[in-house]
Amino acid sequence: MENKAIPATSKYPDKPITLIVPYGVGGGTDLVARLLEKRALEYLGQPLVIVNKPGGAGTIGWNEVAGSSDGYTLGMTGVEIILQPLYGQTKYHYLTALDPLAQIAELSIVMVVQDTQPWKDLDELIRYAKKHPGEIKFGHGGMGTTGHVAGEMLAKSADIRLEQVPFQGSAEATASLLGGHIQVLFTNPASVKEHVKNGTVRILAVASEHRLKDPVFANAPTFREQGLDVVCSNWHVIAAPKDLPVEVKNKLVKGFEAIINDPEFQKNIEKLGFEFSYLGPKESQEKWLTENQKLSKTVQETGILDKIKAQKK
Amino acid sequence: MDILNLLLQGVSVSILPANLLSCIIGVLIGTLVGVLPGIDTVSAIALLLPFSYGMDSTAALIMFAGIYYGSKYGGSTTSILLNVPGEAASVVTCLDGYPMGQKGRAGAALAISAIGSFIAGTIGLIGLTLLAPPLAQAALAFGPPEYFSLSLVGLILLSKLTGTSTLKSALMAVIGIMLSTIGLDSLSGISRFTFGIDELDRGFDLSIIAMGLFGIGEILTAMTHADAKPDIPSVKFRDLYPTKEEWQRSITPMFRGGIVGFLVGLLPGPAATISSFISYGLEKRYSKHPEEFGHGAIEGVAGPEAANNSAISATMIPLLSLGLPFCGATAILLSGFMIHGITPGPSLITERPELFWGLIASMYIGNVLLLIINLPLIGVFVQLLKTPLNFLMPLVAVVTLTGAYSINNSMFDLIWVIFFGILGFLLQRAGFEPSPLIIGLVLGPELERGLTQGLIICNGNIWTFITRPLAATILSLGFIVILYNFVTWFTKFNNKRKELDANRS
Prior knowledge:
Chain A has 313 residues and is α/β, with parallel strands linked by helices. Chain A has two domains: 17-106 and 234-296, Bordetella uptake gene, domain 1 (D-Maltodextrin-Binding Protein, domain 2), CATH 3.40.190; 110-232, Periplasmic binding protein-like II (D-Maltodextrin-Binding Protein, domain 2, 3-Layer(aba) Sandwich). Chain A has twelve helices and eleven strands. In chain A, the strands form two sheets. Chain A has a six-stranded mixed sheet, with helices on both faces. A five-stranded mixed sheet of chain A has the order 7-6-8-5-9. The radius of gyration of chain A is 20 Å and the shape is globular. The relative contact order of chain A is 0.18. Chain B has one domain (2-467). Chain B has helices at residues 2-14, 17-35, 41-48, 57-82, 91-102, 106-139, 144-158, 166-180, 206-224, 244-265, 271-286, 299-322, 328-339, 348-351, 353-384, 389-408, 411-429, 435-457, 469-504; strands at residues 183-184, 191-192. In chain B, strand 1 and strand 2 form a beta hairpin. In chain B, helix 5 runs antiparallel to helix 12, helix 7 (144-158) runs antiparallel to helix 18 (435-457) and helix 10 (244-265) packs parallel to helix 12. The longest helix of chain B is centred in the C-terminal third of the chain and has 36 residues, at 469-504. At the A-B interface, helix 1, helix 2, strand 7, helix 7 and helix 8 of A face helix 3, helix 13 and helix 18 of B. Chain B: Pfam families: TctA (PF01970).
């Protein structure tokens, strides 16, 4: 992908555009990309070709996007573009090497316990944890992921000790919660929705700025409401390499804005369990910068960084 | 009776023309996905998801499920004919299926594999129909310490599946475990043993190694007998199908495999692959002629192919009744459900009975369809073996390499397929069997994960593992088997020594 030729901007796009998904086929990011693919021809004038480049927690795919400049190679990004450079050396500093075109959706984190646990609300759990430090184990979908970060944020801001148990993805973590092997779970709302509805799982708090719109979760208070500064979410953003010609970038921004704001697209995003949340390039860029500041502070203060650095040695 | 009524209602839903058509399309695509190495169920469903929006949700789900269980029917085809596993779950079928093909019994192996798949798939479905919610709950009692115990016992019991030397097998299993640690650790997210090469972060895909060790390895072996003509005797129509003796030997393994597969399918992990190995191990242990295993024992095809199909039915249980996908293929099925506005979970059966029972009824129908599709295909597939080796082998190489590339769209993977191909060839020559390596590769991560998570849950105290009733039971079973093996080995050794002593005096 060393094609550095500047595209003829007036004719752009005159061939299919590649959208790199840095994860495997069938994951959440991949499905969002495939939803975009469906309407691309109509709004971008050319088809989108989805190419999965999994590996390296996303970095293999993003390196390819950052290394291209022809305007025909875009990529799907998530909060990992901020976290990965914090955790260790990456080939590019993605925040400066990539340019957001549009945010599509947000993925919040919720904190849940099994209904057989004695804690009716967050307050009771914190009081218990203060008396029994380290006894409560919380599960999450992998070290350094948003679920893990949110759990450590809670421990830090409530000044309690929680032991973290990493799982491979949210399904295994949820199974372990339902089987009573762990007491608390930090996960995305979609994976526990049916169990909350059914009453087998109780939601204690939501780690976002506002309460969730979904009626099943609407009654659940945020951490902020309960006086704790725990806000952590992932997102799906389409990004391009930095320094595309303005006309090319504008065409892409307009095209994606139209696709994303199509009501049917929006409905499908919500069906997949994501919160629809469109942000333009400027707002997305601002969000990246504030998230970067916040997260680099958080991973340092909570000791996640030390833990990861210690293991990397 | 209640369930029978509901199932009958389900049948009435699933035989609606649109649903029946989706079922046929699904199982046809599934068969194709299974036959072609490298194309897996996950990619096939993901590629079709966007096209399914316009479809009725029941029809779409019937189609996706059809692709999923259909793929396990075709997986054995290339294993038996070419020694290239079409699916990870059919790796073990290479061990005896391919030798059967070499002896001119490919047709019988394919037929037994299809019928075994049908019988076991149906056993799994009956379990799914009758017991889904209670079984899903029961499986939740298994936590990380139990997964650890299961994988440990599994590794010990299964590593000596083939070959004669325990030491060589154990060595291969250990190499398999070592290979499984390469790449991004699934729990900590740390890359290990990658020498800073980003592409190694992905780790070795099971299919890449299996295609190399078995497929490319076999091509290289064939090249060393360059003048060899395919010595497949011209197969008469009657010979395509199993003999009475082959039948009798297969029937028990099919049922045993069906039950094993079903139980394994309830737990997280690559159930279809693991269950096929367990079934193979069981059959070898119970067989009256274990020496035939590895040289074309029909039980070694019947059991595993049955097991991987009932495992598929069983993986639908946690998915449908808890909404939990325990493997990649059920995860993409879950996405397929959600995109059609259906969230599987405890309330699915009561809220959408027509959909739930329609889907299950369609799976019964799909299994019959798969049998009808697969049996006549056997004649066609066996013809393939008449191709002269100097045409067939390059073709196999192209298919294998294309399949390997398509897994991650990576040239890097191609280098590794060839590397493992050469390794497989050399190992074979040196008398090492590649299958324990695959077992180490599959169970290694489960073992490690179970241990890490289990230790955290048990506050770092490993003795808790033997005070948890389930884990203790599993571990002691393993211990008894090892003790038994040791005692028999020792008595044999002792008898031999006495014999020698007697001869000497």
